[in-house]
Write a structure and sequence with these properties.
Order of helices and strands: EEEEEEEEEEE
Distance between the termini: 40 Å
Oligomer: single chain
Largest sheet: 7 strands, mixed
Helix content: under 10%
Structural class: mainly beta
Shape: elongated
């Protein structure tokens, strides 16, 4: 089991920045990829950014250049720096941890943190 606790959401004006953080605990050595997803009202959850244990990152093309994911394996944390925020970035942001244990893969989610971008 892996537990994820997010922090750092809030209300920001368009063009502003926010930094989200996620702390992992539990059987953390099973974690391979960590990431951030978001879900806006009436929409499906979508990938925002992911990062492997080796630091390889992935972003949707639409978010490249504005969002940056980072990971501290020693502290078991993953962060998301969001710059030049737009109203359409408003959503609940979820931290994700993908684990592999004896050949079985699982996904764990945080409780979500609200990000609201005012126009």
């Amino acid at each position: 089991q892996v537990q994820l606790v997010e922090s750092g959401g809030g209300l920001v004006q368009a063009g502003g920045s926010l930094r989200l953080s996620c702390a992992a605990s539990g059987i953390i050595f099973t974690i391979s990829t960590m990431g951030w997803y978001r879900q806006a009202p009436g929409k499906q959850r979508e990938l925002v950014a992911s990062i492997t244990r080796d630091g390889i990152t992935d972003y949707p093309e639409s978010l490249k250049g504005r969002f940056t994911i980072s990971r501290d394996n020693a502290k078991n944390t993953v962060s998301l720096q969001m710059n030049s925020l737009k109203p359409e970035d408003t959503a609940v942001y979820y931290c994700n941890a993908h684990t592999t244990w004896f050949g079985k893969s699982s996904d764990y989610w945080g409780q979500g943190t609200q990000v609201t971008v005012a126009s």
